[in-house]
């Protein structure tokens, strides 16, 4: 404490001396280093304004759930910003005013989150954090990278991973009850949007997946969400663009992801980094939009890394974190006063958020050390500013003994001493409705996304034409069997390889599922059934077009029943192939592993070496039984050659089974081809069951279900 006090005193004295014009340092320097013998400053800035104490009057009305906050601004300049220096444009005549939303008060008390191995020196990612968020306000959690912002936000929202343990209490309207479905929304830092849909279509399908009731009732909800996020000009534009048309900019995409959660009209909205990857103009527009949303009554809690002065002025409360420690919680203007009291006043021409992060971000120590070594080598300077560890300890100690911390504790006590209205669940649509919605949405996506099936259809047709012309004119003699077997093997194997063109689309589908599942908008079974039903028409189109071309080019038997079996067999191959791609997309999400999987199955399919001659430990069992190529090729050859005979010389003839068995292992049973078709059908079902397990357990493992942390806090609370 003596070191902290001395460093703070040095800073205060240097700050007062810096106010004179002679001692003022050029503002172009990011940080300042003094010559030997000069006064050593912890963090040297230009002179700062004198901040007066702000009077905060917090009133909780008895008999109601409304909370009134009256703040007397301390600074005329920043109070103008905080009250909205950016006036909203006037609404045109006939414009629809956004509906009011019943917000909810959220309180977190002594919140500690531990994740094993997350920190180098401690498993505590968040340490004894206290705070609250009120209806109609924006509460921001700010701090440098790896300070625990997202972890604290997830802990409050109940979205922690299974590896994290939470201690402490979270209250919603004064009660320790889990927030039911539909009462809150959570927007991830990186969300996956469907680029082939327009903004209105995307939100409409999201509403159908989230809300029960009739379809016509959800149109008004979608329009309200579009209005709330200022997306009216982009409502009919494709999110990802089309052909030479550009998609939505990053700012509008971010607002679409927030609007998806607004269709539920949540009481509380959590947003992880709303300004992620946004420029200054888009960031300001985003925050003005969120400020307008908060004015409707919604409780907003979000994280932020850095902001401009204009954006900072829109915040109502700020929770400042560094290495999991809470350095301040309270009004934004009071945070500036807190830094000034601790000896770190904010310069006039510097953004408050830049000033905060400069003081508490330990990454600046490396920059200072690097510049110190360079300047020491030059022989000009030898002393550096105070390291951020001392600044963090100073700010933390000052906050714990300040009136701001006492005011927070008093406010938490008022908000938790009496329970308010309990939030009610909005209800969910039935599984049948969600399957129908996902099927129709997937059909629309597949029809518009040319890389999904249309590219594969073109590639399949080109490949089939190449194979058919290479193996055309074979005739029906005994010598044509080897070439025809090769043609069928190449057709089945190479088409399975070309299906890898659809892997990126499958990976994106899995990401969309994970995003919707995290907010309980979808489920593994619903997703798989919707995807299967939507893909069947496209797969059948590919199967019948490719099979017809190949069947007649290589001269297979001209019989309708045999042709239909050939088409059905190849259709089952495509279904199995889709199931394998879903499994690969759920595990690796990489094209390389898809190629490797198909190549291994091709090698064990029994063409390069008869199946019974394959090495038993690995290639014959289990690989040859897992490879769907084996059963598809067997069924096609049995369909073509069983019941036929070939003349050997002028006297003797052999059956088709005897002629093919030396080239490929088939059965002489007449029902064997149907057994192979049944195996393909079971494999198509089996791979989708495996995909269901992977989606449910592996993808869902990283998704904390709503209310999980409430159960944990009751068992892990040390008190």
TrEMBL record:
Domain ABC transporter: 106-348
Single annotated GO MF: ATP hydrolysis activity
Coiled-coil annotated residue ranges, if any: none
Subcellular location: Membrane
TM region(s), chain numbering: 453-475, 481-503, 524-554, 560-584, 591-610, 677-697
Pfam family, one: ABC2_membrane
Predominant localisation class: membrane
Keywords: ATP-binding, Membrane, Nucleotide-binding, Transmembrane, Transmembrane helix, Transport
Region Disordered: start-end pairs: 1-26
Keyword Membrane among record annotations: yes
Gene Ontology CC annotations of this record: membrane
Keyword 4Fe-4S: no
InterPro entries linked to this entry: AAA+_ATPase (IPR003593), ABC2_TM (IPR013525), ABC_transporter-like_ATP-bd (IPR003439), P-loop_NTPase (IPR027417), Plant_ABCG (IPR052215)
Membrane topology term: Multi-pass membrane protein
Family indicated by similarity: Belongs to the ABC transporter superfamily. ABCG family. Eye pigment precursor importer (TC 3.A.1.204) subfamily.
Protein name: ABC transporter-like, ATP-binding domain
Species of origin: Dillenia turbinata
């Amino acid at each position: 404490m003596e070191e902290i006090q001395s460093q703070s005193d040095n800073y205060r004295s240097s700050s007062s001396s810096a106010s004179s014009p002679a001692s003022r340092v050029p503002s172009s320097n990011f940080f300042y280093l003094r010559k030997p013998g000069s006064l050593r400053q912890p963090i040297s800035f230009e002179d700062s304004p004198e901040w007066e104490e702000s009077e905060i009057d917090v009133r909780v009305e008895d008999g109601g759930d409304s909370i009134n906050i009256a703040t007397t601004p301390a600074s005329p300049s920043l109070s103008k910003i905080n009250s909205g220096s950016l006036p909203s444009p006037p609404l045109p005549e006939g414009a629809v005013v956004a509906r009011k939303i019943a917000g909810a008060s959220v309180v977190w008390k002594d919140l500690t989150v531990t994740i094993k191995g997350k920190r180098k020196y401690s498993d505590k990612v968040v340490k004894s954090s206290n705070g609250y968020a009120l209806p109609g306000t924006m509460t921001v959690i700010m701090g440098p990278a790896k300070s625990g912002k997202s972890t604290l936000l997830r802990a409050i929202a109940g979205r922690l991973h299974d590896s994290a343990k939470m201690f402490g209490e979270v209250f919603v309207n004064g009660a320790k009850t889990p927030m039911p479905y539909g009462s809150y929304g959570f927007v991830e830092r990186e969300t996956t949007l469907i680029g082939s849909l327009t903004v209105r279509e995307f939100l409409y399908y999201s509403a159908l997946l989230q809300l029960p009731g009739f379809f016509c009732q959800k149109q008004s909800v979608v329009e309200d969400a579009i209005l709330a996020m200022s997306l009216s000009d982009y409502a009919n534009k494709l999110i990802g663009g089309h052909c030479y048309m550009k998609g939505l900019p990053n700012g509008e995409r971010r607002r679409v992801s927030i609007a998806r959660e607004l269709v539920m009209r949540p009481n509380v909205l959590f947003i992880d980094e709303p300004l992620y990857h946004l420029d200054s103009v888009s960031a300001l527009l985003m925050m003005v939009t969120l400020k307008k949303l908060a004015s409707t009554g919604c409780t907003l809690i979000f994280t932020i890394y850095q902001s401009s002065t204009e954006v900072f002025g829109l915040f109502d409360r700020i929770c400042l974190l560094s290495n999991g420690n809470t350095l301040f919680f309270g009004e934004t203007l009071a945070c500036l006063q807190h830094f000034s009291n601790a000896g770190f006043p904010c310069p006039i021409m510097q953004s408050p958020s830049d000033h905060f992060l400069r003081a508490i971000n330990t990454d600046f120590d490396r920059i200072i050390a690097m510049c110190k070594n360079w300047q020491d080598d030059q022989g000009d300077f030898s002393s550096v500013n105070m390291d951020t560890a001392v600044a963090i300890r100073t700010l933390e100690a000052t906050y714990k003994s300040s009136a701001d911390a006492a005011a927070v504790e008093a406010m938490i006590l008022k908000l938790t001493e009496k329970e308010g209205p309990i939030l009610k669940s909005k209800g969910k649509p039935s599984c049948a409705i969600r399957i129908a919605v996902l099927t129709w949405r997937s059909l629309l996506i597949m029809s518009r996304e040319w890389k999904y099936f249309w590219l594969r259809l073109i590639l399949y047709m080109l490949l089939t034409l190449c194979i058919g012309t290479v193996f055309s004119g074979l005739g029906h003699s005994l010598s044509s069997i080897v070439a025809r077997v090769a043609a069928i093997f190449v057709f089945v194997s190479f088409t399975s390889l070309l299906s890898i063109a659809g892997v990126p689309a499958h990976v994106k589908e899995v990401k969309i599922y994970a995003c919707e599942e995290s907010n309980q908008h979808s489920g593994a079974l619903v997703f798989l059934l919707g995807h299967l039903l939507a893909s069947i028409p496209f797969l059948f189109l590919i199967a019948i077009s490719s099979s017809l071309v190949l069947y007649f080019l290589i001269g297979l038997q001209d019989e309708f029943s045999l042709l239909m079996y050939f088409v059905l067999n190849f259709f089952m191959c495509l279904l199995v192939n889709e199931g394998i791609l879903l499994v690969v997309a759920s595990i690796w999400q990489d094209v390389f592993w898809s190629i490797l999987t198909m190549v291994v199955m091709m090698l064990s399919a029994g063409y390069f070496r008869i199946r019974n001659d394959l090495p038993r430990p690995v290639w014959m069992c289990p690989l040859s039984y897992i490879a769907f190529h084996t059963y598809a090729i067997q069924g096609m050859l049995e369909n073509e050659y069983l019941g036929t005979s070939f003349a050997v010389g002028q006297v003797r003839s052999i059956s088709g089974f005897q002629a093919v068995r030396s080239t490929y292992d088939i059965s002489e049973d007449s029902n064997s081809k149907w057994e192979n078709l049944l195996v393909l059908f079971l494999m198509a079902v089996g791979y989708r069951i495996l995909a269901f397990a992977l989606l449910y357990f592996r993808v869902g493992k990283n998704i904390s279900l709503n209310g999980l942390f409430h159960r944990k806090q009751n068992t892990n609370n040390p008190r």
